């Protein structure tokens, strides 16, 4: 015999009201078309608990005790790359057999969810030390200092952006329907390398790099674009140039030219793209360019130039004015990678 449907709260209240009015169990049962035993059970529960609302039930016995749950959470926290299947095997070896779904539910209850590991530069002890030193040395710098910095970097932009993800709504078995697939081409259909710079007052030059950049190519880019960008952005005379520690950037010929040109260079910690706000600018640029769906490399370059110049100065200033938060994040992370 199947399980009977539970009575509604309103019907249970009617039973209690009729009972309080002095009617017998049989009369209530006949009037409401409810079995007499059910009427009696509801009245008895009301007298004990003072309510007709269904109370929490114990349900099936827990597969994992509270102690086992805590052990499971500790295991995952100490080994964040462990899989759910491996967790099940480890628990089974200790005499506890649970399903992958149980492990998943327990971890979700404790706020742990499976996520893709973020790709970040490898940081060694010397990198942590220099990052912490950079944060400490510049923590007292105010917005006026950072507004005088000309930030620079290189980036590669692919024609079709093969690293992008696209989600679709589909039914089971429709994964390979042409409407639900994302066409790809080798090497993203080609790419271009760009060097760019910006400051709090706006974007500077954006130069395409032909072929593999050598130190001579980098020097030529600086000679042709650095000072014009600084003048166009109104940085004045006491501005500071930022570049990372790529071998081309720190080559002897580049250092000599920067010294001769009397350009002050910001001392930079290696492996620290999260400290360079131009990385956020590259993300904005790539999203805007790929939204326009360029069809060939020449068009890709054209769109890059247009979208770079379309970035509002207010967005640049907002990004730079919040720079101290990056330094605080590095300090809080003890030199390790941050969210930026």
From TrEMBL:
Residues 1-52 form the Sleeping Beauty transposase HTH domain. InterPro entries: Homeodomain-like_sf, HTH_SB, RNaseH_sf, Tc1-like_DDE_dom, Transpos_IS630-like, Transposase_5, Transposase_Tc1-like, WH-like_DNA-bd_sf. Residues 149-300 form the Tc1-like transposase DDE domain. One of its GO terms (biological process) is DNA integration. Residues 70-140 form the Transposase Tc1-like domain. One of its GO terms (molecular function) is DNA binding. It holds the Pfam family HTH_Tnp_Tc3_2. This is Paired domain-containing protein. It comes from Astyanax mexicanus.
